[in-house]
Design brief:
heterodimer; A: alpha/beta; 3 helices; 31% strand; B: 177 residues; five-stranded antiparallel sheet; 5 strands; 25% strand; globular
């Protein structure tokens, strides 16, 4: 299947879903008014990937900001990953946050609490 | 309510483009003034939620009846900075019959501890809390979590059908250690 690549904008993140190497990435900011239309092609893609996932998928979330309508959609993304993981195809999620960004750290903890999926919280190395 | 040092104030119709422009303008301003990074992020986050909340609310309304003297599709947006806090104020008309529900949500949020807000956020995120549709509930909880202070609000009656609802969120300029 084809990789999905979306370039970032002021309001939406860069998304890379690479099925060859099992490397997924969401980075930047996610603050669109209409998060559903941004995320629905991503969810559709993940539904396809879930039919034949790799034995191991790495997922990197490196978000600077996101709004609450994105947070529901990101939960949907993570639920898709959770079911891939439950089907015996390992999924490792890393949730990056700036050292002083407690809010982003807490959001990562919220998702950890809500899902049966290994989510590692990791402090981003300052550039 | 005494307001000083207004960074931005707007009254009129609220479009998605307008919200984007305001966010960008205020972000540039905070950046330019060298505000603490953590404070800047919080202000920006709270501002996104406040403005988008109003935008979604107004966007969902039917077109204004030309015979209606209340401009129910317009809003007031204001952002300012005081010695200790940034404040973000939004104001819009709401139908009086919506007030009890809004008020009870706001009171519940204001009564909640940090831990209870976290729990409430998770409940609404997964669709088990607040029982009503939409993400507006989640937006307000998120604003309260990031603000760390009580949300100020007021319903000012304007007619037998409408009141002017104002919501004030504050973000401390003093970064926690």
């Amino acid at each position: 299947m084809e990789a999905l690549r979306i370039e970032s904008t002021h309001k939406t993140p860069r998304v890379i879903l690479d099925p060859e190497n099992g490397i997924f990435e969401f980075s930047g900011r996610s603050i669109p008014e209409d998060a559903v239309s941004f995320y629905s092609p991503i969810l559709d893609w993940l539904d396809q990937y879930a039919k034949k996932p790799l034995a191991l998928t790495h997922v990197r979330f490196d978000l600077e900001y996101f709004n609450t309508s994105s947070s529901k959609n990101i939960l949907e993304v993570l639920k898709r990953l959770e079911s891939i993981h439950a089907s015996g195809h390992e999924v490792r999620v890393t949730w990056y946050y700036d050292e002083d960004d407690e809010d982003m750290e807490e959001t990562g903890q919220d998702y950890q609490a809500l899902l049966n999926l290994p989510i590692e919280l990791s402090v981003k190395v300052q550039s | 309510m005494q307001l000083n040092n207004i960074i931005f104030v707007y009254q009129g119709e609220v479009t998605a483009d307008l919200v984007s422009s305001i966010l960008q303008m205020v972000e540039n301003k905070l950046e330019g003034e060298g505000e603490d990074r953590k404070v800047k992020k919080r202000v920006f986050n709270v501002m996104v939620e406040c403005l988008q909340n109003v935008y979604h609310h107004l966007d969902a309304l039917p077109p204004t009846d030309p015979n209606n003297p209340i401009r129910d599709k317009t809003a007031l947006l204001m952002i300012g900075r005081e010695e200790k806090d940034y404040y973000i104020i939004t104001g819009n008309h709401v139908q009086n019959d919506r007030i009890p529900d809004l008020k009870s949500r706001l009171d519940r949020i204001n009564r909640a501890s940090k831990e209870e807000l976290k729990q409430l956020y998770q409940e609404v995120l997964t669709g088990t809390g607040f029982s009503e549709k939409g993400t507006a509930g989640l937006g307000m909880i998120d604003i309260a979590r990031k603000s760390g202070q009580r949300l100020g609000y007021d319903f000012h009656p304007v007619s037998d059908k409408y009141s002017f609802f104002s919501l004030e969120a504050r973000v401390s300029r003093i970064p926690e250690k």
